[in-house]
Design goal:
The chain is mostly helical. The chain has a single domain, classed as Rhopdopsin 7-helix transmembrane proteins. The protein contains 9 helices and no strands. Helix 2 runs parallel beside helix 9, helix 4 packs antiparallel against helix 5 and helix 6 runs antiparallel to helix 7.
């Protein structure tokens, strides 16, 4: 517990606020999963997994490399689950039918997470460069699926725009836009090897020089965009779920 509070005091205030709001979203989404229709289950589980992924930085075992890699896998599973959930919701809006049950969704998600964990256990401990690759793959999947989710949310809104909860999906669209900017700017830095992770790897493993100084303005701009968009994504997702909770009451 002492280590936990020490980590809290060391965290960037932006990251701490972001984790708090993702935690709020995770709690409300978990409530949705328990107390609402089957159609919300995948969406709720996905947002709850994002909270677990974001809260990774405030646990006392964050320095373990396999756990770090597992954190990025959880984030990837989360956005895939959310996308599946919004696709289900759109199909429900068009057909008023939903297949499967909550238990199947819970067990399927748990199975994917367990298989991913087993994959890491049976393979060698990831190097810093390998962990960076995990993070880069996660960001790429997030960026692609956020674009897809924005379009799905737009279609859901168009299908139910006369209902009381339609404005809640506008809020989700804003959430995905913020996440797209956050993850996209982070991915941009990774692609051009301007991210801090890669700079640390270069310093440890090679004597190569980086061109980061030559493009320092755009690097700093991208870092600031990533930082503020990450904060906005956390605040917006907490606000979106509180708004949706109010609409569904």
């Amino acid at each position: 517990m002492e280590k936990f509070f020490e980590l809290l005091t060391q965290m960037n205030p932006f990251d701490l606020v972001q984790v708090i709001f993702w935690g709020l979203a995770g709690a409300i989404s978990f409530y949705f999963s328990l107390g609402n229709a089957r159609v919300w289950t995948s969406i709720s589980i996905g947002f709850f997994l994002i909270f677990l992924s974001q809260a990774y930085g405030i646990n006392p075992w964050a320095h373990y490399q396999k756990l770090t890699a597992f954190h990025y896998i959880i984030g990837t599973v989360a956005i895939m689950t959310i996308t599946h959930g919004f696709l289900e919701y759109y199909v429900f809006c068009r057909t008023f039918e939903i297949s499967g049950n909550k238990l199947v969704v819970y067990l399927s998600t748990l199975g994917v997470v367990a298989i991913s964990g087993f994959f890491l256990i049976i393979n060698p401990t990831p190097s810093p460069n390998t962990i960076r690759n995990f993070k880069m793959v996660e960001n790429a999947i997030w960026v692609f699926l956020c674009v897809m989710n924005i379009e799905i949310v737009r279609k859901i809104y168009a299908a139910i725009k006369d209902s009381d909860i339609s404005k809640g999906f506008i809020a989700f669209g804003i959430v995905f836009l913020c996440i797209f900017v956050w993850r996209g700017s982070d991915l941009y830095l990774q692609i051009f090897q301007w991210d801090k992770d890669w700079q640390d790897i270069i310093a440890i493993m090679t004597e190569e020089t980086s061109d980061i100084e030559e493009y320092i303005v755009r690097v700093q701009l991208s870092q600031d965009v990533s930082r503020y968009a990450g904060l906005l994504s956390g605040v917006s997702v907490g606000g979106a779920f509180m708004y949706m909770y109010r609409l569904l009451k």
